[in-house]
From TrEMBL:
<keyword id="KW-0100">Branched-chain amino acid biosynthesis</keyword>
<feature type="binding site">
    <location>
        <position position="189"/>
    </location>
    <ligand>
        <name>Mg(2+) 2</name>
    </ligand>
</feature>
<keyword id="KW-0413">Isomerase</keyword>
<dbReference type="GO" id="GO:0009099">
    <property type="term" value="P:L-valine biosynthetic process"/>
</dbReference>
<comment type="similarity">
    <text>Belongs to the ketol-acid reductoisomerase family.</text>
</comment>
<dbReference type="Pfam" id="PF01450">
    <property type="entry name" value="KARI_C"/>
</dbReference>
<feature type="binding site">
    <location>
        <position position="189"/>
    </location>
    <ligand>
        <name>Mg(2+) 1</name>
    </ligand>
</feature>
<feature type="binding site">
    <location>
        <position position="229"/>
    </location>
    <ligand>
        <name>Mg(2+) 2</name>
    </ligand>
</feature>
<protein>
    <recommendedName>
        <fullName>Ketol-acid reductoisomerase</fullName>
        <ecNumber>1.1.1.86</ecNumber>
    </recommendedName>
</protein>
<dbReference type="InterPro" id="IPR000506">
    <property type="entry name" value="KARI_C"/>
</dbReference>
<feature type="binding site">
    <location>
        <position position="193"/>
    </location>
    <ligand>
        <name>Mg(2+) 1</name>
    </ligand>
</feature>
<dbReference type="InterPro" id="IPR008927">
    <property type="entry name" value="6-PGluconate_DH-like_C_sf"/>
</dbReference>
<feature type="domain" description="KARI N-terminal Rossmann">
    <location>
        <begin position="1"/>
        <end position="180"/>
    </location>
</feature>
<dbReference type="InterPro" id="IPR013116">
    <property type="entry name" value="KARI_N"/>
</dbReference>
<feature type="binding site">
    <location>
        <position position="225"/>
    </location>
    <ligand>
        <name>Mg(2+) 2</name>
    </ligand>
</feature>
<dbReference type="Pfam" id="PF07991">
    <property type="entry name" value="KARI_N"/>
</dbReference>
<keyword id="KW-0460">Magnesium</keyword>
Length: 323
């Protein structure tokens, strides 16, 4: 795998071009501001009444209706939630002239066929590998965030160069850019969200907390041990890698991890991870996502309500009342 660096990328494909950022959430705001600060002409597309409009204007950006934004743009980045992209694309397509480019920061909608871009459009993906807040703060510190780039459709013959120039303008070339595909990005990302960082890890924290509390440990001490220490682990891995993290902790902790880890993450866990990966690749999860949207996110709203009311969250509030 070759990592593409900033000095290898020609900025010219984006020079003098206008970029429309459709959506001004976590990624949309960060990308718009980084582009602006890199000298790119940026316009934000938001529907009338959107709560994001005042913030975008306070940030010094021009805000217009989404159709108006893409009509005058050379590249339209569609940065709204995946499940809303099909309707958004249908709305915007008549305003997209032949030869223009559309971009995404996640491959799901295109890879799984939730929308089918017109064949006369360039279709790109520039996917920073982290939240927008970090993308922005790293840029302001003169650093960058690793990003994946991919081309799904190259109508102009210049799509790859445009994607790389965009990633450079985000500051991602400072850290490195990896060429990928819509499939690879979305499958790996969806798998991680379910089976590792956002799915399995929080549930392991809760299970550990519950186990200690059931054994008579106070809720606050259990929280400090099973939840709060995660930030220490993440920091060590970020700074030193997995091997360096293990070398940095005490012999007691290292031996406990060596004995305990394999008892938790056994072949059964790996088999269930493989099943999750299969459901991602088959499109079954994408179907679930659309059903959840159609139910007005009933399952997600119920889970959020339960999480907020949990004893674990009450313990956290007692420990960190201003957090």
């Amino acid at each position: 795998m070759d990592m593409i660096r900033e000095d290898q990328i020609d900025a010219a494909p984006l020079s003098g071009k206008r970029v429309a950022i459709i959506g001004y959430g976590n990624q949309g705001r960060a990308q718009a501001l980084n582009l602006r600060d890199s000298g790119i002409d940026v316009v934000v597309g938001q529907r009338a009444g959107s709560a994001a409009i005042p913030r975008a204007r306070e940030d010094g950006l021009m805000v217009v209706a989404p159709v108006e934004a893409v009509a005058d743009a050379d590249l339209a980045m569609l940065l709204v939630p995946d499940e809303h992209l099909p309707a958004l694309y249908r709305e915007l397509e008549p305003a997209l002239s032949p030869g223009r480019a559309i971009g995404f920061s996640h491959g799901l909608a295109v890879h799984f066929g939730l929308l089918t871009p017109r064949p006369d459009l360039d279709v790109l993906m520039i996917a920073p590998k982290g939240p927008g807040t970090a993308l922005r703060s790293l840029y302001r510190d003169g650093k960058g965030m690793i990003a994946l780039v991919a081309v799904h459709q190259d109508a102009s013959g210049r799509a790859r160069a445009l994607a790389l120039a965009y990633a450079k303008a985000l500051g991602c070339g400072r850290a490195g850019i990896i060429e990928s595909s819509f499939e690879e990005e979305c499958v790996s990302d969806l798998f991680n969200e379910q089976a590792v960082v956002w799915g399995a890890v929080p549930d392991i924290l809760v299970a550990g907390w519950q186990t200690l509390v059931a054994a008579g440990i106070s809720e606050e001490v259990a929280y400090l041990e099973c939840v709060s220490e995660l930030k220490l682990l993440a920091g060590l891995i970020e700074d030193r890698g997995l091997a360096g993290m293990r070398e940095a902790i005490s012999n007691t902790a290292e031996l406990g991890a060596a004995l305990g880890g394999p008892r938790i993450v056994d072949e059964g866990v790996r088999e269930r991870m493989a099943a999750i990966l299969a459901s991602v690749r088959s499109g079954a999860f994408t179907d679930e996502l659309q059903r959840e949207r159609d139910s007005d996110y009933a399952r997600l709203r119920e889970r959020r309500k339960g999480d907020r009311a949990s004893p674990l969250e009450a313990a956290r509030t007692r420990l960190f009342p201003s957090g």
